[in-house]
User: Fold this.
Amino acid sequence: MRTALLLLLALAAAGLSSTASAADVWKWVDEKGITHYSDQPVPGATRIEIRTGNVAEARSAQPEPSTPEPAAVNTNYYVAIVQPQNGQSVINTAGQINIQIQVAPSIYTLHRVSLYLDGRLVEGFPRNTLVYTLTEVTRGTHNVNAVITDETGKTLRESAPVEFTMRQESIAQPPVGPSLRPPPKPQPRPGAANKMLTKQPSYDALNGGQPAIDPATNLPVVKKPERKPGKP
Assistant:
């Protein structure tokens, strides 16, 4: 058996130095059950083809197929709050306000855009929401900004903060302004005085001095001229 192994090694070495791509080896088992190998054919032997190392070396010399690099992910985002506008006053909405975010280009699948109100994350909305309707925002001045983060939570881009004021008119604090001022009180005319009447005005005075109407004829009463004394 040891002889057979030595023979195989010798054949392999010879194959490495040979320019042939394969070598023929003959294998047989004798009457004692011992396996033998030879480079010469023997009656009853089986032919075995052994590849030399040249083929393996030629294959290893070929470059390995390269794995395509993943497409570069754009992290140079533009993000801004477009509604409300900076310095805007929101009046009489019972604490409700709409927030709109603009992002370009579109958010990558593993990245995230979030909204912050007064420095606190706004939660309860679908992932990467760009339009928010906030409720129960208290009266006063607030600010909002948007932040884009990657899959590890690293900040990629942050918008400029936008400040707005929530105003709710009430009886305790009524609105003021030039158009909402009460009308001026009437002032008395110079020289006029509120005097009580001491005498009931006549019918003629009440009717602008018009002549009286005769109810029988429905015509104005014509006064007869008074006769002077001594004339018929």
